[in-house]
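Why should sequence recovery work at all? Because a backbone constrains its sequence more than one might expect. Tight turns favour small or flexible residues, buried strands favour hydrophobic ones, and helices have their own preferences. The token representation captures these environments compactly. In the example below, the structure is given first.
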């Protein structure tokens, strides 16, 4: 499937948004925060939309499978880093952000190892909910003090970030268990699974 397919272009757009979101932190004023939130939210929507379109239109591709997790991690990691750098996260809220980043590294390592054995690691429903809450939390935190004065926007964002981090621990543990179970299997069993996956591919 060519890179120019619509699902892949949506994934690429998520990567291209990252430097713009980063740049918005250096622009003062409430409008910059709302603009960054809008861009981040649009990028978060493409995270669901590109996969949905690829499956529905049968445009799934290896380059899409490669780029999609990279785009997600770049967007989330860069934004959390900027929120911390510009003091928009309290000292306590840095902890859930750190949990989320560490989990992403763990899952990436597991996926890379299992991909070498041609073993897939499907995304659980709980992990999808974690992603939704995480994206909403980060979007709210981007707005921060620029939000409505009658709402504790920063507190809401940090609370959602703690919830996302809690789900992150649960899903990360589930992924780790699944990976360790496979690693603990005898080499012959792993070889049989590999041949089966090749026949099914």
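From this structural description, the recovered sequence reads:
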């Amino acid at each position: 499937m060519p890179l120019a397919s619509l699902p892949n272009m949506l994934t690429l757009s998520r990567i291209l948004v990252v430097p713009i979101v980063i740049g918005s932190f250096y622009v003062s004023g409430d409008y910059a925060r709302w603009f960054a939130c809008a861009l981040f939210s649009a990028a978060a929507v493409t995270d669901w939309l590109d996969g949905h379109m690829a499956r529905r239109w049968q445009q799934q591709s290896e380059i899409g499978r490669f780029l999609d997790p990279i785009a997600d991690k770049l967007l989330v990691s860069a934004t959390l880093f900027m929120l911390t750098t510009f003091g928009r996260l309290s000292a306590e809220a840095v902890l859930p952000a750190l949990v989320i980043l560490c989990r992403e590294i763990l899952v990436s390592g597991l996926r890379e190892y299992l991909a070498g054995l041609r073993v897939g690691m499907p995304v659980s429903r709980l992990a999808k909910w974690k992603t939704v809450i995480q994206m909403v939390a980060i979007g709210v935190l981007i707005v921060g003090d620029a939000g409505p004065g009658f709402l504790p926007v920063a507190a809401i964002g940090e609370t959602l970030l703690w919830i996302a981090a809690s789900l992150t621990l649960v899903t990360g543990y589930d992924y780790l268990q699944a990976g360790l179970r496979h690693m603990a299997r005898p080499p012959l069993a792993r070889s049989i699974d590999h041949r089966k996956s090749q026949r099914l591919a």
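A few observations help interpret the result. The helical segments are 6-24, 30-56, 62-85, 94-116, 125-143, 153-184, 187-200.
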